[in-house]
Design goal:
There is one protein chain. The chain has about 450 residues and is an alpha/beta fold. About 40% of the residues lie in helices and about 15% in strands. The protein contains 14 helices and 16 strands. It has a seven-stranded mixed sheet, with helices on both faces. A four-stranded mixed sheet has the order 1-2-3-15. A three-stranded antiparallel sheet has the order 13-14-16, with helices on one face. Helix 4 packs across helix 10. The structure holds pyridoxal-5'-phosphate. The site of pyridoxal-5'-phosphate (PLP) has 15 residues, from helix 5.
């Protein structure tokens, strides 16, 4: 199998960095100006981790494309890391936003449309009761509170190298010896997360039973397919075991569909008949307008209601003044009704298949020990020959330098991939020509590595 030259990679990366500087003078100027008022010159700290040494400043985005302030055009395969999976500024959502904005944006009172959304969520995900939040992080935080309140248990269980937003309890990983430890760079945790959290590897049924058997775990918080350390599919029977064991030990099962909504209109839950106690979802739900939801069973609703003090419910730790605001709800209704439809998925998944075939053809041509993993309209290449079965294996396979090079090479040729892994999301507005451009650029990048 071919090996590429690491020393060569460093100088290739340097060349791409120079090209990036050359083609983005205005972005650089704005970045320098931003550095005087924004921490690190960016609105969110992690944005300094984009592949170039400063971020591209966007001029405008529509559908699967955007342009930057230097008039470079891009095909967007990142799509706001699922936040814009609908394609940027979908027409139906825009129309609803414009109409609603004339009629009031936030009131702390419901409009009738919220009922349509609740009924649609029932229909898609099979859970009877719903609440609203502004981010998936908040939705996860709120359901963890509900689960702990009902069960009167302190602990939650997560999978190694999961990501569920900035939820304190989730920043625990297993070290090389398999010992739970606070996640690298866990910034100022309120308590040592080992006090709140158990962490095990995904796809390990024995570890799951051991962790749950102490009967101190309020909830398992899980993506049905891991996506944040790359796509890791459940092994056959894993979800059955997860459901059976959580029921056996009185632990709630929370399925976080924030990314796996890429699998279909009802997420992985509907497409694979999962039966969670809670389901959380955010990001693309309102076409990019901040909105998130959490749903739960009648049993959860009854148990929660029995313990709820309505008098103090506004200061109980589950809230959000702007949650359920009229603009988010209008955007959510329009997006669910007109954008995230069966046809959306049919078209986007077909394009994903074309993308995957293209990448696989290059892997084959160069006889590379690499693979592609897919879920719905999400596709991703891995620099390893076999799919990892858990987060620990996936993390060990990360090649940050190679990732950076592939991302920057693509960016310099008008392609934005999702940062930190080589993931592409396909929207129905992506064209076959866009997909083929990616294949061509991917091939060129590979060629430079093995030249
Ligand atoms: C699975 C999952 N859940 C929740 C979140 C949090 O979403 P947000 O940052 O919009 O709160 C993320 C973010 O990447 C995610 O991947």
């Amino acid at each position: 199998m071919p090996e590429f030259n690491r020393t060569n990679l460093a100088s290739l990366l340097q060349q791409e960095e120079q090209l990036f500087h050359k083609n983005h003078p205005k972005s650089f100027e704005l970045y320098q100006r931003a550095s005087k008022s924004l921490q690190g010159g960016v609105p969110m700290l992690w944005m300094i981790r984009w592949a170039g040494s400063f971020p591209v400043f966007v001029k405008e985005a529509k559908g699967a494309h955007f342009t930057d302030v230097d008039e470079n055009s891009y095909i967007d395969f990142c799509l706001g890391d699922t936040g814009a999976m609908t394609g940027h500024a979908p027409d139906a959502t825009l129309k609803a936003i414009n109409e609603q904005a004339q009629k009031g944006i936030t009131l702390m009172l419901p409009y009738e449309d919220v009922i349509w959304v609740g009924e649609e969520l029932q229909r898609r995900f099979g859970l009877p009761f719903w609440q609203f939040a502004l981010t998936a992080t908040d939705a996860n935080r709120f359901v963890l509170r509900m689960a702990r309140m009902i069960t009167e248990r302190q602990k939650v269980l997560v999978f190694n190298y999961c990501y569920h937003g900035t939820v304190d309890e989730t920043f625990v990983t297993l070290d090389e010896e398999g010992t739970p430890t606070s996640r690298a760079n866990n910034m100022g945790p309120q308590v040592n997360p080992l006090r709140t959290t158990k962490v095990i590897e995904f796809n390990d049924v024995a570890a799951l039973e051991t962790a749950l058997s102490a009967r101190d775990v309020a909830a398992v918080l899980a993506e049905p397919v891991m996506t944040n350390i790359g796509i890791i599919h459940p092994q056959p029977g894993y979800h059955d075991a997860l459901r059976e064991l959580t029921r056996k030990y009185g632990t709630y099962l929370i399925i976080d569909e924030t990314h796996t909504i890429c699998a279909g209109p009802g997420g992985y839950t509907a497409s694979h008949g999962l039966q969670p106690d809670f389901l959380t979802l955010g990001k693309p739900l309102a076409g990019g307008v901040p909105a998130a939801v959490y749903g739960f069973t009648r049993e959860v609703s009854d148990a929660f209601t029995a313990k709820l003090s309505v008098e103090d419910s506004d200061v109980g730790g589950i809230g959000g003044t702007l949650a359920g605001n009229a603009l988010s709800i209008a955007a959510m209704k329009a997006t669910l009704e007109n954008v995230l439809t069966e046809e959306f998925y049919a078209r986007a998944i077909k394009l994903q298949e074309r993308f995957t075939v293209g990448v696989e053809s290059v892997i084959k041509e160069f006889d590379l020990p690499w693979i592609v993993k897919v879920l719905g309209n999400r596709t991703e290449y891995w620099f390893r020959p076999k799919p990892p079965k858990n987060g620990g294996e996936a993390h060990a396979a990360v090649d940050s330098e190679l990732d950076r090079y592939m991302h920057l090479f693509a960016l310099n040729r008008g392609i934005l991939l999702t940062p930190f892994h080589n993931m592409a999301l396909i929207s129905p507005e992506t064209t076959e020509a866009d997909v083929d451009t990616h294949t061509k650029v991917f091939r060129e990048a590979v060629k430079t590595l093995f030249a």
